[in-house]
Amino acid sequence: MSSKTKIVVLRMKEIIYTGIFLGLAVLLIALCLIMFRPKKDEADAQAASYIPGVYTASLNLGSQDVNVEVTVDANEITSIALTPLSEAVATMYPLMEPALEELSSQIINTQSLENLTYSSQSHYTSSALLGAIERALEKARV
What we know:
This protein is an alpha+beta fold and about 140 residues long. The chain is about 50% helix and about 20% strand. The protein has a three-stranded antiparallel β-sheet with strand order 1-2-3, covered by helices on one side. Helix 4 (about 95-110) crosses helix 5 (about 125-140). It starts with 11 loop residues before the first helix and ends with a helix.
């Protein structure tokens, strides 16, 4: 019987490089699994439930206060309005009403405060309104 023995010669450099690449591959797979798994906060936000009613948050505009009024049902936001919007406030802040109409239509359609779009002209007005809407919704959450 003749047996042919094969000898495999590996260089230490090749073994080290292979180990490093395997370690990086495992790390990359673990990071992908961690990044793309559903988060608990997102699941809770999608199934948001509210205590039905009308909730307000105050918005200070110069020397006057305006309330942002958010009406909610058990599972959805039904309307968003400014109360009381006097002529003085409407005159001094002309972007207030159009910005709120634009934001409220998006919020009511998506039922979320995430990924909203607004014009660059009303950036600060929209940011202030979003802050007030968010404060009002915090009061409404179960």
